[in-house]
Specification:
76% of the residues lie in helices and 0% in strands. By secondary structure, it is mainly α. It has one domain (2-217). Helix 2 (14-38) packs across helix 3 and helix 4 (70-100) packs across helix 8 (152-178). The longest helix has 32 residues, at 186-217. It is globular and about 50 Å long. It starts with a helix and ends with a helix.
């Protein structure tokens, strides 16, 4: 268990991300993107920072870059992201009501489902696209859409659009950064990317803390 926790922590460090990508290669990237979007337990995986870092390392101008063909990288990651959401949607349809009604687990909390449900109700189908860019929500919103029995064809359209926008925009952003003088400061750039990707998680944790304080005060 300690080794798993240590591995997960490493994914939010510059050295950990670079080591994972260089050691595991494209297969590791595909597996993580699929797991984050397709499995509820994968909500803690760093999709955004992983995509940007992969984009940086696909640039031949970055230090240690040029290890991926950008076209192959984007196509494989798009397919992984789309397939992940498809699986999550199917799981939501088949077992969603049972999972949704369960009490808090060790890692997956009811608030994750409640926040995703509220987000989905507020934005409808476009929530599938927007949630791609928001950690935690990108894992739970497709599941909630399945529970809500969103029409399959409609879901597929939003899923493909969202998956492609998410992967293409972040990988190309990383590749663009890698082609600038910042590509020579790989560790600093990735550190900033990781920090930015953690902001939504910090905000979510603060909201939970504030809500508990209000409940205690009330």
């Amino acid at each position: 268990m300690d080794s798993i926790v240590e591995f997960l922590r490493s994914l939010y460090t510059t050295e950990g991300l670079i080591s994972l990508i260089r050691t595991g290669g494209l297969l590791a990237l595909v597996a993580i993107v699929f797991a984050e979007t397709g499995l509820l337990i994968g909500f803690f995986l760093p999709g955004d920072s992983l995509l940007v870092t992969a984009g940086i390392l696909s640039s031949p101008h970055a230090v240690g870059g040029g290890i991926f063909d950008p076209v192959v990288l984007i196509v494989c990651l798009c397919l992984a992201a789309i397939a992940g959401d498809q699986l999550n949607f199917a799981l939501g349809r088949k077992a969603g009501h049972v999972v949704f009604s369960r009490p808090d687990g060790r890692f997956i909390k009811r608030r994750h489902f409640e926040e995703a449900h509220a987000f989905y109700l507020a934005r409808g189908g476009s929530a599938i696209v927007i949630a791609r860019f928001i950690p935690i929500l990108r894992t739970f919103v497709p599941f909630v859409a399945g529970v809500a029995e969103m029409p399959y064809r409609r879901f597929v359209g939003f899923n493909v659009l969202g998956g492609m926008l998410w992967v293409v925009s972040l990988v190309l952003l990383g590749r663009l950064v890698g082609a600038t003088p910042l590509g020579a400061q790989l560790h600093r750039v990735i550190l900033v990317v990781v920090a930015i990707s953690l902001i939504p998680l910090v905000v979510s944790a603060y909201k939970v803390w504030r809500k508990k304080r209000e409940e205690i005060a009330g």
